[in-house]
Amino acid sequence: MRNIPQFLIAAPASGTGKTTVSRGLMAVLSRKGYQVQPFKCGPDYIDTKFHERVCHRPSYNLDSFMASGKHLSEIYFQHAQNADVCVVEGMMGLFDGYYRDKGSCSEIAKILRLPVILVVNAQSAAYSLAALISGFLHFKYDVKISGVIFNNVGSQKHEQMLWDVCEDLHVPCFGYIPKRPQLAQQSRYLGLDFSEMNDDDALADLIEKHVNWEGILQATQKEMPFCEVVRQPIEKEKKIWVARNDDSFSFIYAEHIDILHNMGQVTFFNPEEDQEIPDDIDLLYLPGGYPEKHAESLAKAKTTRDSIRRYVENGGKTLAECGGMIYLSQGIVGDEEKYYEMAGVLPFRISMRKQDKKLSLGYREFNSNGQWYKGHEFHYTQFMPNDSVPPSSFKVFDAKSRPVSTPIFRYKNLIASYTHLYWGEIGIDELF
Predict the structure, then answer these.
(1) Global pTM?
(2) What is the CATH number of the domain that holds 102?
(3) How many domains does the chain have?
């Protein structure tokens, strides 16, 4: 057994600065020579890109709706074994879940017994924050808040008033982030737009100057138990092709990549580059991303589109999630009716016209042969109105077991939908 610092960064609400603080601390600690293992609460596959960039190692998702507590513990302890410090970025507010605090980052903190660092937005407030922080300190006694970091601090006087808050509440203040307009970053979909990222070094400089990162490490030392994860033996060396690039096919959970590598030989390819997909592969995985932003490049890669269509029509096992499903549609319709031809496997088109854009989001689950499969849906594109959309092959429910209209398509050996499935616990073969 060994002790290492490990903590979860949470906040009272979304938009408070969790990602800024998390990425900044990761950058500082990495710069100081620590091996930092990052994690992300919830289904977000964008914030993990920030983590990987500054920590130089994959960031793993921890979601207590899509996976069991046992599975989350296995993921956490397996990847923490060779780390010097573990940093878990929370989601939404600390106690915000799909049903009350179920599925919240507070639940993750309880499962893994992690101390919490609370990031509080201090803009236009001072001593009144004592009431807010006091509520978080005492609301759930099985969630330990080890300290506070204030964001959007306007002046030295403002800073001192916030220190008074923590002193009266007997909770450590680990520092603050001054108001910096340049830290604001455009939100896109689930998290931040990865294509427009701030300077990691400048952010690390800011955190190092204003946040007591050494105090955080001292306050969050915790015993790290050993957890052995036994992978199922490989029955044969499978050939697996995975669409992957920086944007149009980029939403991939790190745990999924590990599983695929354990199954056999994984070949990553970029559907924007024109190439033939072999007919003799065992599995084709088309994950999500922003294909609508690269529709022209995808349409021009006709050899790739034709070979993927042929593979699916010949019965090849294929999983297509959100962007992957869009790619398998007949095409994408943009503003001014501009049309981009896609792979043409599924009989409908996808609209990205302004008049059709609509946010669809939430957890999804369905049952197949007695096994529940879970995932998350988040998109603005929609099926083209009046197109012939096949009925769902399964009854689909939200996190509260209410029926939803989100279809999941089964065509030959293809499974496709707007839902990003999490199969890190059950494996991908079971889907077919």
Answers:
(1) 0.94
(2) 3.40.50.300
(3) 2
